[in-house]
Amino acid sequence: MSDTFTIHPTRSVTGELSVPGDKSISHRAAILSGLSDGDCRVENFLSSEDCVNTLKAMANLGVSYTVTRGTQDAPIDMVISGKGGALQAPGAPLDCGNSGTGMRLLAGVLAAQAFDSELIGDDSLSSRPMGRIMTPLEAMGAKIDARGETPGCAPLHVTGGQLKAIEYTLPMASAQVKSAVLLAGLFAPGKTTVHQPATTRDHTERLFTAYGIECVTQGNTITLEGLQTVKATDLVVPGDISSAAFWIVAAACSPGSILKIHNVGLNPTRTAIIDVMERMGARIERELLANEGEPRGNLIIHGGPLVGTEVLPEEVPNLIDEVPILAIAGALASGRTLIRNAKELRVKETDRIDTVVKNLRAMGIEVEEFEDGLEIPGGQHFTGATVSSYGDHRIAMAFAIAGLLAQEGVTTVENVACVNTSYPTFHEHLTQFQSI
Ligand code: S3P
After folding, report:
1. Of 9, 299, 335, 372, which has the highest C-beta tally within 10 A?
2. CA 48 to centroid of ligand 1, rounded, Å
3. 215-221 contacts: CB < 8 A, separation 24 or more?
4. Same domain, 127 and 158
């Protein structure tokens, strides 16, 4: 397969599609099922590089899984047989590939094991900050040595051992750091408490409940009593709203389009992209399919004129992965769109403020860059151009949509293999909307 997308402008984003399973939930399902006391049937697992790396890491720790749909290397439905917490020392370094979630969450588990392990990743992951998990895990008694060329970065050598519970205030709104501490807290006697500066995605807490682990959330404080049994359970992973976001924006920005997206996760800590698009004037109907555990439903998006908006500080953690695609909507809307308080974007798979700004400008869009965000004057149009993903899946997909929405010209997005980390069927869906 070629490593580029070639995109012609489309006249309409009408039709229907189902996005693959949620990335955040799939990572956690692999980890918690592996820690559970029995067989867990997991359906609609995101069979992407990131989540399969986490599943394989659990397999290297002694967990087995039997695939009932998909393949051993690309499972969609499977039974994961938990080890009841009795993980085995891995024979080799655990490769997290491109995934910060995989590495940070696994570090929380590994810190508490009776063996040493090594977490490695690709060049992007090996330059992302790991000090943010090392600080709380070390306060719990873990020993983690960051051996990367960049200080505080992977490879991480984890010397496992008995942990103690802590009370920890997150210095940044990060669900990954919160989850690393809570997973470590599962192995520490006593109460582990995490205070977060803003609400972040709460999949770990919801899944804890599904796996029979009591965990109390009061405002932005989460408390967990350690040494609880992780009880085997069955799960159906909803579609990933962060993948759906590309199509929400594509349809909303194409007047006259009507697009139905089936079975999307509607956890309220992830739906700010819908709220913000509605505030911009998009018409989005929701058909709720299930409201327990992880809510999910169908979305029907009607394209029409949009107006720019200001993203509120408390919305930022809730749509942090959607900023690249939101920037595309901002350029097309009338009036300005302002996204600030989003410095975290600088330490994602790429520095997403930088890569979004570069690609917007390459496609003829005026934008102002800030250390913590960007401002886009509205009423502009995209002109087809050659842009790079810079190795970042969300940049590749956001600018493929920009190409689809361009007023004229063909867009080439280079270096798109990274899309397989989160949305392996993206290209297939993109082809559906090519009018040529
Ligand atoms: C994730 C949390 C977010 C998000 C990432 C997935 C998770 O990162 O950007 O794609 O699954 O917990 P932070 O929590 O570090 O902001």
Report:
1. 299
2. 16
3. 215/182, 220/195, 220/196, 221/193, 221/194, 221/195, 221/196
4. yes
